[in-house]
Structure formats: C-alpha cells, structure tokens
From TrEMBL:
<feature type="signal peptide">
    <location>
        <begin position="1"/>
        <end position="24"/>
    </location>
</feature>
<feature type="binding site">
    <location>
        <position position="71"/>
    </location>
    <ligand>
        <name>Ca(2+) 1</name>
    </ligand>
</feature>
<protein>
    <recommendedName>
        <fullName>Peroxidase</fullName>
        <ecNumber>1.11.1.7</ecNumber>
    </recommendedName>
</protein>
<dbReference type="GO" id="GO:0046872">
    <property type="term" value="F:metal ion binding"/>
</dbReference>
<feature type="binding site">
    <location>
        <position position="68"/>
    </location>
    <ligand>
        <name>Ca(2+) 1</name>
    </ligand>
</feature>
<comment type="similarity">
    <text>Belongs to the peroxidase family. Classical plant (class III) peroxidase subfamily.</text>
</comment>
<feature type="site" description="Transition state stabilizer">
    <location>
        <position position="63"/>
    </location>
</feature>
<keyword id="KW-0479">Metal-binding</keyword>
<dbReference type="Pfam" id="PF00141">
    <property type="entry name" value="peroxidase"/>
</dbReference>
<keyword id="KW-0376">Hydrogen peroxide</keyword>
<keyword id="KW-0408">Iron</keyword>
<keyword id="KW-1015">Disulfide bond</keyword>
<dbReference type="InterPro" id="IPR019793">
    <property type="entry name" value="Peroxidases_heam-ligand_BS"/>
</dbReference>
<keyword id="KW-0349">Heme</keyword>
<feature type="binding site">
    <location>
        <position position="73"/>
    </location>
    <ligand>
        <name>Ca(2+) 1</name>
    </ligand>
</feature>
<dbReference type="GO" id="GO:0006979">
    <property type="term" value="P:response to oxidative stress"/>
</dbReference>
<feature type="active site" description="Proton acceptor">
    <location>
        <position position="67"/>
    </location>
</feature>
Amino acid sequence: MASTSYFLLLFALVAAATVSEANAAQLRTDFYSCSCRNLLAIVKTGITKALQKEARMGASILRLHFHDCFVNGCDASILLDDTSRFIGEQTAAANNNSARGFNVIDDIKAMVEKECPGVVSCADILALAARDSVVYLGGPSWEVGLGRRDSTTASRLDANNSIPAPSFNLSTLKQNFANQGLSEKDLVALSGAHTIGLSQCRLFRPHIYNDTNIDASYAKFLQSKCPRTGNDKLLEPLDHQTPFHFDNLYYKNLVQKKVLLHSDQELYNGGSTDHLVGKYATDRVAFFNDFAKGMVKMSRIKPLTGKKGEIRLNCAKVN
C-alpha cells in the first residue's frame, strides 16, 4: 500500500499544476484594452525600429523570451541585474556573453511608461516583442495573452538547471521540454526558432569536430572558420541560407545534416522526432501553425498574476 507521504506529494504536485493552469487562464488578449490602449502599437513600433537597425535583434528578442519562460515561468526574471540579494540569470551558462536585446526592451518599456505609467509589466512587453519580432521577419503571428506580472527575484542556478544546452541529446531535450509542460511536437516546432539568428563558435565546435551526423563538406567549411581552439565568439548563421528570414529552411537543413548545433541535429537522427522534422521541411504552413501554437503554450508557463510579483518601473531592477 502506498504511504501517506506519497499521497501528500502527489496532492502537492496536482495542486501546484492546478494553480499554474489557473494563473495562465487569467491571461487575456484584452487585458490592457482600457488601461493602456496603445500598448500593442507602441511595442510594434519599438520592435520595428530595432529590427530595421539590426535584423539579428529579432532572434535575440525571441531567445530572450524563451530563456525567460524556461526559468520559473514567463516573469521577466532574465531582465533583472544582479543585486546584493541574488545573482541573476544573465550570467548563467546559456546567457553569459550571449543574451542580448535588453536595451530594446528597456527602450520599449520607457515608451510604455510615458503612455501608461506603472501599468504594463516587463514580462508582457517581452512576450509581445517576441511575437512582433517573428512577424517582422516573415514568420507567423499568434494571440498573446496578457496580464503577467514581474518577478522580484532571479536565480542563476535555476537558469543553469532549466535552459536546454547545445550538448543535449534527444531524450534530454524531450524531458527538458516536458518539465515545462511542453510536448514532443512543441519541442520540434519551437526549435524552428533556429531558422533565424547566429551562434558562437564555442557552442557549435563540438558538433563540427566530434559528431559524425553532419555533412562532411559543411563541417569542413565551418572548421575553416572555427578552429579547435580560439575564435570562441565567431558567429555563424543557424540557418546558413536565410538567417534573418523566418522560414522552414532550418528543417530542410536538418534533413541534409547541415545545422550548427548537436542538439538541433538530434531532432533528425533516427529518433522519434524525425517524422515531424520531415513534415515541417516540406510543409511551411504546418510548421508556422505548430510554432504559433507552441509559442502560445510557452508564453503561458507559470505566469505571475493577480497580486503576485509586481509591475516593475525599470525592467532591470525591482521597485
């Protein structure tokens, strides 16, 4: 017979999941329809300005949202600078010297504060900015539920434990996404974000030197730029054809074994996700639809709502 402690643990897990779902249900697309009517236009204007200046910034903003949501929910904790009370997420392994776009969110926040002081959270701004970045670069749109509040703390340790690494194999990736309530389909669809943006030599070096599931000519080309030592910060496109256009070439590259990261190629390496990669490689509409659905799910991971958290006046620090 199961012990009482087992049932207590099970009850606690179910209760936690129920609370999380309830919080997510409180998000509404019209949350600021009265309190900040021009919010969507302000965010779109800010993203348009930033991406016109540097198209790569779109991938950076999308990545910032993803790395925020995977660490204790979509609460803008990644935007917090370190304080005497905590070491934040910006120096975690996945973010240190690579996460960027903070200034773009800060600029948009300043515009929003001028229009609607003390009303809109940094977490909501980041969620909208990620959507608008994808749309600007030619990708799908989706409805963004709003009403998140901002965290008052951040944790480098939690970031190190939660954000998937380029070294992950397929089973680890699936478990990592499952921990966030995301399915195998979500994993493959959301990985399509790598159809835009760049990656550093230090991150793709293991794949091009140690792995055999990579096109030989492509590996040789990358090795000519990324030596076994040095050039750690050298950048190469994740999608070598159209790095600043949101399309489905990432999946075509997976089929041809021409991607930068070990973790990406794991999605098409004789495993359970091969069929999804094949589907998205030949059906852009299916990819766009599933990516949009996956982003809606991801952006609703454990939001702070109601009286939890706060509305930060400055995204980099608590009030």
